[in-house]
Amino acid sequence: MNKRKLGLHELYGQDPEMADDLVFGRRCHPLSRRGFLTGLAKMSAVLGATPVFADLMPAGLIPATLVNETKPFRIEGKDPGLIVLNDRPLNAETPPHLLDDDVTPAKRLFVRNNGHPPVDPDRRTWKLRIEGEACTNPQSFTLGQLARKFETVTYQLVLECGGNGRAEFHPPASGNQWTLGAVGCPRWTGVRLADVLKACGVSEKAVYVGYYGADTHLSGKPGKDTISRGVPIAKAMRPESLIAWSLNGEDLPLHNGYPLRLVFGGWPGSTSGKWLKKIVIRDRVHDGAKMGGTAYRLPCHPIAPGETVPESDMCIIEEMPVKSLITAPRTATLHPFDKPLTVRGHAWTGSGKVDRMAISIDFGQTWRQIRISEPVNRHAWQHWEVQLQFPQRGYYEIWARATDDAGHAQPMVVPGWNPKGYLNNACHRIGVRIG
Ligand SMILES: Nc1nc2c(c(=O)[nH]1)N[C@H]1C(S)=C(S)[C@@H](COP(=O)(O)O)O[C@H]1N2
Ligand SMILES: [Mo]
């Protein structure tokens, strides 16, 4: 069953949980009954006994006793409503109605892992190393040293995967089929990357910073990086570019990088290295894993859908484009005609800020301009809310469109096809029945 082909009218009158599953494709996904099992200890705990021939068990095989498990799939510390797109590595997105909070709770922040997180990392002994060709005074820091030597700062920053919205591209792009929920905006606490880099000596040759994390490659090969990306030195030096150890005042969740990570608000999430072990100050564009080829790069010039692009014509993604989400009501809501409907959500952009927000209930024929809040700081998402009255009973779609301060508006249709399906910032739309 393809969730995108499912008419919304088919969902009304269903048990809301069932409707939710259909809309978000949970029941349609082949992984829906899989267990997320890493390591013998965890598997034993789930099964209630140690599998005796565990080392003969094919990787990725779901223990038969769990195959008919009907309990929802759970990720430790995460909301059971997250949609698991892949369990090896773990990738899970947050449906829009669970992104309604102004500040995204840790349990509702999506997870995008390229490999396996480190096993039981310890924040007390964790060390971060700063070095590289353009670093004149290489040093290592514990978390305690970072906190003592540098000013602690907190910013609310949007983290969005470059591939968010990939599921809508045609021809399809390979990779996790993110729909809308590979985004969140929690409050991050840590130190400024700039302060740490300056203490370690940034030479005039500095062009880029790259990161290395402690996660392990799916192949199990030691020393093989899962991902090692970075940002140009100018972005690294911005005051909101962070080395963070805390999310909403708590330790980072394991899957979101515990105990230490980078956060570059407004840039592809892939720049925000998790389980951060090392930063290199480079005298050239960083050339770590997933910096080349089609990874996190776009054709430098527009192309036709499906066209192949020579590597030399691919450019690294920098700022993320303007985008918005409708977080209330959830799609497929039934609402009484005589009561105004509260519609709300967020809008954000990787550069500048969002300065116009518009809503349509007539498939884009007319747009109503609505108020949008100021961001609490640069790269925080902004909020909007409106009460809608409908002309008569019936089915409507609510469309939302944000425009940034440079005049870029969200497109109504999926924009610029590219080989890996990045940067889909098409307008979000929901269906409601007013009855
Ligand atoms: N070490 C490491 N850092 C990483 C990744 C990873 O797999 N390993 N994934 C990146 C990608 S592609 C994204 S979108 C964000 C996701 O952050 P989150 O899982 O905390 O939401 O982390 C980035 N940092
Ligand atoms: Mo990502």
Automatic annotation (TrEMBL):
Superkingdom assignment: Bacteria
The protein's required cofactors: Mo-molybdopterin
Keywords for this protein: Metal-binding, Molybdenum, Oxidoreductase
Domain Oxidoreductase molybdopterin-binding: 120-288
Pfam families in the record: Mo-co_dimer (PF03404), Oxidored_molyb (PF00174)
Ranges of residues in domain Moybdenum cofactor oxidoreductase dimerisation: 316-433
Protein name: Sulfite oxidase
Source species of the chain: Sulfidibacter corallicola
